[in-house]
Amino acid sequence: MKPGIRDMEKVIRLLEKAHGVEPWNWHTRQNAFQVLIGTVLSQRTKDANTDKAARALFSRYPTPERLSRASVEDIEPLIRPSNYYRTKARKVREIARIVSEEHMGKTPDSMEELVKLPGVGRKTASCTLLYGHGIGRIPVDVHVQVISQRLGWTKEKDPDRIQEDLEAKLPRKEWCRINELLVKHGQAVCLTRHPRCHICPVERFCSYPGKMLERGK
Q: What pLDDT shows up at residue 212?
């Protein structure tokens, strides 16, 4: 059954009530440059480790100018909690150089310019636009992908296509909430492998095939 906009908005309200509306981690509550760098650090890394790496990095190099002048050898130990920290150290320094030299220290506020930066795809760019610039987008990570599919909001498999699908279906006023709500819900209730359907506040809207089995646990 194709979900109606009204049902999608009901789900959003129920998730807001269940999980609150505060941003879901530390590195999405900073300025646009730090959101950008923090999101690069978050790639294939747990949130707690991303936050450790981002806090350590920004305590020494809080601006693009200062980070661009740092050596890779100085950056690496600061961001070691982040997976693939050696590769990311080179990427974040190069991002800082480009922002500092080519954008006069201002983090780009368009998808087109952001995805030109090393290590920045649509998800990272969308997070930067949303949490750094306050521009409504729907970043698609594993939680957004899995939960939106279980709820029947999309049949797409590719994250970029899922983003396009969700943004086409949902009113723009709802875009700012979706990522943080589905991330919170995915971490606490709708787990990727074994969702906790028996405590889910939106279970009645869900079409997950294994729902009855998980509900009985």
A: 63
